[in-house]
Amino acid sequence: MTTAPLSARGVRKRYRDTQALDGLDLEVAAGTVHALLGPNGAGKSTAVNVFATLTRPDAGEVRVGGHDVVRHPARVRSTIGLVGQSAAVDEALHGRENLVMFGRLHGLSKADAVRRSAELLDAFGLVEAGDRKVSGYSGGMRRRLDIAAGLVVRPRILFLDEPTTGLDPRARHEVWEMVRKVVADGTTVLLTTQYLDEADQLADLVTVLGEGKVIAEGTPSALKSDLGGDRVIITAAEPDDLDKMAGALGATATVDLDRLEVTVEAGASGGGAAVVEVVRTLDSAGITVDDVLLRRPTLDEVFLHLTAPDPEHQPEGAAR
Amino acid sequence: MTALSSTLRQTWVITLRDLKHWQREPWGPVFGILFSIMMLLIFGYLFGGAIEMPGGGTYLPYLLPGVLALTMMFGVDGIMAVVTEDTKRGVTNRFRSLPMSSVAVPLGRAVADLGNSAVQLGVLMIGGLLIGWRIEGTFLEAAAAVGLLLWLRLAMLWLGIFLGLALRMEGALMMVQVLVWPLGFCSSLFVSPETMPGWLGTLAAWNPVSATATAARDLFGNPTGITSGVLADHAMLLALAWPAVLLAIFVPLSMRAFRRRG
């Protein structure tokens, strides 16, 4: 049996007055994309920095590629690729020169570094741009080059720290495509993100971090089903109908005046049955509707639900 | 591959990177040289007439080695800017995540910069010769003077590398860019310490750049403006020792800061 690409137990790290990591446990399985999801300050980047040997943990044990990050950082470094938050490429060099440089620094011979750079430029659609200065690249191209630079030696695990922060939607999709390609090649990926859709799109397993601890873990669909069932959203044809609709649909109905919507929890019988039930009820009450929509919970809702402060501890008036 | 040969190889890769920077974006070094020429003209022609030399001699031959030493001193904030920029972009962290020797990045930088410094010295010396500066010493003495100036530059580079890695607050670079001036002026670079109030003159004489400037003046056969005291007796020794001391302090500190950063 091979060792897990990454396993962490009870990792703690304190910076002056913040406990960035407060007993983090994590296990990343080979060949998967694992997402660390959390708001700013949850400890995602600190975790990646500890895993990539950039920061020494105060306590806990971390093994990357089977090596202990504190005792054998050099061995860890030769098995990982790190892509940090900002595109860490040299602006004055050409794309190809960047990849060759990082390959050479990884210990590849010049010929191997040149060959590998050509492969990577080809794989990530940068062949044409390869011999131009990086300072003229778009944000998405720069990010793709940056990720390619993390792959020059086919790492056992690739760390992507917020790979799409600051990118426009099109560039985000390009980066996602790239990550899928990397995983298809057999590389394990640990990515941090504050975007739920990103975790939903890419990750096999999601670990939700809050204040340096794991607050939930599971597949995107498991996390979503934990939150509860489907919902039916009915858009009213007339504003006056909203109250009538809510009355007809019973206690679980909530009204959104601005969007002319009534939302009903589907309950145990599932979304399909709930839609039929809603349409039947409204029809027999003689209310016409503009639209009926079945919605499954998004990871956004899971996230807000998990990271929301406990309502019982909220001051008066803050609770809804 | 042995650790030493891979360290040297990594160092060379970083050196080539920096040389490529200068080839692609030559304005930094070119501006540096223009700036030194401007200093030479300002002090040589604007202030020079009003400056009297203790022990006799004219000002230009005194001034030129001082401008050379000042140019070497600018290595501190020059390399600090590069290191700070790399750190800001995350390039330093990427280097730190690679299986590299912790000395390779700063050493590669320093080697590339010494090439750049040698060019700067050459241009300034030719400029000096054009406006009437003369080398009165032998060729070997002049070469030794250039060697001492580069030796000072090397120490300044490691100081700058350390500051770039260790000072993380916003504005640290600007602070150093400003501080270079009083530290540069409080020396024998532009005026003889013997014309200063007693305590300040002593301070200026003990400034590491004063030792290099005075030793270089001696070797070029230019007036030193120094008639007595430690600089008169031991300039050469101090010009060798000061950079050695600075290197002994800042090379290990830089390597430590490289590993600790983050």
From TrEMBL, chain A:
GO cellular component terms given for this protein: plasma membrane
InterPro entries linked to this entry: AAA+_ATPase (IPR003593), ABC_transporter-like_ATP-bd (IPR003439), ABC_transporter-like_CS (IPR017871), ABC_transporter_ATP-binding (IPR050763), DrrA (IPR005894), DrrA1/2-like_C (IPR025302), P-loop_NTPase (IPR027417)
Occurrences of domain ABC transporter (ranges): 6-236
Main localization, broad class: membrane
Keyword terms of this UniProt record: Antibiotic resistance, ATP-binding, Cell membrane, Membrane, Nucleotide-binding, Translocase, Transport
Protein origin, superkingdom: Bacteria
KW Repeat (keyword) present: no
Location of this chain's protein in the cell: Cell membrane
SUPFAM superfamilies documented for this protein: P-loop containing nucleoside triphosphate hydrolases (SSF52540)
Keyword Cell membrane: yes
GO molecular function, one term: ATP hydrolysis activity
Membrane topology: Peripheral membrane protein
Single biological process term from Gene Ontology: doxorubicin transport
Family: Belongs to the ABC transporter superfamily. Drug exporter-1 (DrugE1) (TC 3.A.1.105) family.
The protein's name in its UniProt record: ABC-2 type transport system ATP-binding protein
Organism: Nocardioides albus
TrEMBL record, chain B:
Membrane protein topology class: Multi-pass membrane protein
UniProt entry tagged with the keyword Kinase: no
Keyword flag Hydrolase: no
Main location per the UniProt record: membrane
Alphabetized GO MF terms: ABC-type transporter activity
InterPro entries hit by this protein: ABC2_TM, ABC2_TM_bact-type, ABC_2_transport, Nod_factor_ABC_transporter
GO biological process: response to antibiotic
Subcellular location: Cell membrane; Membrane
An annotated GO cellular component: ATP-binding cassette (ABC) transporter complex
Parts of the chain that traverse the membrane: 27-47, 59-83, 118-135, 142-166, 172-191, 236-258
UniProt keyword list: Antibiotic resistance, Cell membrane, Membrane, Transmembrane, Transmembrane helix, Transport
Domain of life: Bacteria
Annotated ABC transmembrane type-2 domain residues: 27-261
Family (UniProt): Belongs to the ABC-2 integral membrane protein family.
PANTHER family: NODULATION PROTEIN J
Protein name per the record: Transport permease protein
Organism of origin: Nocardioides albus
